[in-house]
Amino acid sequence: AMMRDLSATQGLAEGATLLFSGGSAGGRGAMAWLDVIPRMVPQGVKVLGLLDSGYYLDIDPYTSDFSPDFMVETSLITNTMNGTALVKAASPECEAAYPGEQIWKCMYGTYRMPFVTTPYLMTAAQYDGWQLSHDVHAYAGIESSPVYTDEELAYVNTFGARTQAMATTLPSQLSTSASIYSPACYNHHISEQPNFWKTATSDNVTQYDALKTFLKADGEGVNVWIDDCKGYECGGGC
Fold first, then answer.
1. In which region does residue 72 sit, left (phi positive, over 0), alpha (psi from -120 to 50) or beta (all else)?
2. Would 52 disulfide with which of 23, 174, 199, 235, CB 3.0-4.6 Å?
3. What is the per-residue pLDDT across 2-20, written as a single tens digit (0 to 9) for each?
């Protein structure tokens, strides 16, 4: 309905560029829908994706108090809210890789992103505040200034290292045009916050800079801005 309205009342037509975006849960939704959108807009419309903070890890929570975890939650949603139909429409390749009971993985960041083919900019803080707040302290939100024990910090550092390592595997061979932005910082979904212009990678690239570069290139080519330092909030631009 939204795509029809953009065409009917907002002038979306041949020669236009549509930036289809979302952050946090919306980032996950935008990731799931992105490869369907080009079929829903008028011919000649360029579709690009901005996927902010939807790159969730398949990692067991530190605390048993957080239940169901993100993986179980995604499986339940996929199976009860017709997510399987969306996967079949958006990415038959992902469905083939994760058939049957594994199909929920095609709605989950680290499994789905290698199959996204529409040009995109993905942003993923290596110490994602939403995931860590839930996984470590079962905090229903984002902790503003978390304090960790030594054992918790070891988990947090493992989380950050795994995000960093997984981000470096993108884009996959299926994604010929994609940009990856991953600072070694603790934050979440800052594309609608002042830190969009302030927080940076160690090379002093902000999320604004990354998006500007991505749009200036019309989504073409590959750009990677991934901090490679080790340890919680080690990034020079945090």
1. alpha
2. 23
3. 888 998 899 999 999 999 9
